[in-house]
Write a structure and sequence with these properties.
By secondary structure, the chain is mainly beta. Helices cover about 15% and strands about 50% of the residues. It has two domains: about 15-130, Rossmann fold (3-Layer(aba) Sandwich), CATH 3.40.50; about 155-395, Beta Barrel (Porin). The protein starts with a helix and ends in a 27-residue tail after the last strand.
């Protein structure tokens, strides 16, 4: 048995240990209650790296809500933009933070840049809460007095090649694909040049009879755009190539174009309404005689495209409308529309729907005599159609605690099995 002295020392030790654990816990509870309530889409990594705010599930509970957008850069990376909007006591306090990733950045580098950008945007709000005295701001990179020049003059080059081979006793399939591109993007000019090659072959052995299906395509294309103002741009497109699927042994095109954005280009990460018109010349040589008894044609065509994109706190809309026709016969036309809509209906409930459809009357290259059975089944040959469509939709509902701060990675994302992944 413990002596009275030993029991007293043990009791004192337990009381001290309990008190030392309680005080920080009570302080943490107080700080958590005073923390900034933020509504945003946050990964587990962001929640771990930015623990000094409350991640709430509903917009109405937030002191600040954050909308994030991203778009490709001329260097092949991605520009991320975060729009901070204050509510309640922070009404009228808004901010925008932007950063760009490099094409060779790893996932870890990108997510650390995301965290740093979010921290910079949040500081002005956290600075007005009791948690401000626990924030330290530091600068990690000394600045040089001079700026180095870009020896590549904003040109970025990319090359890729990949192949695939699979097979079994009665089936074999393989393909090879390669691409090369060069781009230069500045405030005044945008230049994109690209080339690609694709070849695939599949063989089937059915009851001793072998079927072979081949498909190949080659393409070279270029785009040149000059910025005229914050609303107008002008340029053009050039292309040449071939496609066994479309019965085109050779095709080429040159199409000058002009574009007008209803909203300034400077607002492109939040909203766009772009109107694009192009017109040009398109010579074509076919592999096989077409249903119009042509082996070659010299075509003139034009097209009109409208694109609308908007990102707001209630959701986002992305719509595209395209119309084109050949000038020698306006009945040879194509009209297509696609849209994606994501709406936050009410607390915890959101709805998304997307899809598109085309009215097709411009299939000039269809092969006379049609396609073989294997070409139809394997979709190796373009077939006659007057329309095509696709659609998708979804509904999600979440309810419960308004807070979403805790991250627990044990046993993975659910109890059904292992696995690890990073979500942005």
């Amino acid at each position: 048995m413990l002596s009275n002295r030993a029991f007293t020392i043990l009791l004192f030790f337990l009381l001290v240990l309990h008190a030392s654990g309680q005080e920080p816990k009570e302080m943490q509870d107080t700080l958590r209650k005073d923390a900034l309530n933020v509504y945003m889409e946050a990964s587990d990594f962001i929640k771990k790296e930015i623990p000094f705010i409350n991640y709430v599930r509903d917009l109405k509970d937030a002191d600040v809500y954050i909308i994030s957008t991203n778009q490709r850069t001329g260097a092949g990376g991605t520009e991320y933009t975060y729009f901070f909007t204050g509510q309640k006591r922070f009404t009228g306090i808004n901010d925008t933070v932007t950063f760009a990733s490099s094409p060779d950045d790893t996932q870890d580098v990108i997510r650390m840049k995301q965290v740093n950008a979010l921290k910079m945007g949040l500081i002005r709000y956290v600075g007005k809460t009791p948690l401000a005295k626990y924030i330290n701001v530091s600068f990690s990179m000394p600045l040089t007095e001079s700026v180095s020049t870009d020896k590549w003059n904003n040109w970025v080059f990319r090359a890729s090649v990949n192949g695939y081979l699979t097979g079994e006793k009665s089936y074999q399939s393989k393909y090879i694909r390669g691409s090369l591109s060069a781009s230069r993007v500045t405030n005044d000019w945008k230049i994109n040049l690209s080339g690609s090659y694709y070849y695939s072959v599949s063989t089937y052995d059915i009851s001793g009879y072998k079927y072979k299906s081949e498909n190949n395509s080659k393409n070279l294309s270029g785009m040149l755009v000059k910025s005229l103002s914050d609303h107008w741009s002008a340029g053009g497109f050039i292309s040449t190539g071939s496609s066994s699927y479309s019965n085109e042994k050779f095709n080429a095109g040159i199409m000058p174009a002009i574009e007008y954005d209803i909203f300034p280009y400077s607002q492109s990460t939040r909203r766009q309404l772009r109107l694009l018109y192009r017109i040009g010349f398109n010579p074509v040589i076919y592999y096989d005689t077409t249903i119009y008894d042509k082996t070659r044609e010299y075509l003139w065509s034009h097209s009109f495209a409208a694109a609308y994109e908007v990102v707001q706190k209630w959701g986002s809309i992305d719509m595209n409308l395209n119309y084109s026709n050949y000038l020698h016969d306006w009945s040879k036309n194509n009209l297509s529309f696609s849209s994606y809509l994501n709406i936050r209906i009410t607390k915890g409930l959101s709805f998304n729907i997307g899809g598109g459809a085309s009215l097709i009357h411009d299939q000039l290259g269809l092969v006379k005599g049609g396609a073989t059975t294997e070409e139809i089944l394997l979709r190796r040959r373009e077939l006659e159609t007057q329309y095509e469509f696709y659609t998708s939709f979804g509904l999600s509902y979440t309810f419960g605690s308004i807070y979403n701060n805790v991250v627990n990675p044990r046993f993975g994302e659910n109890s059904g099995g292992g696995g690890y992944y990073i979500m942005y």
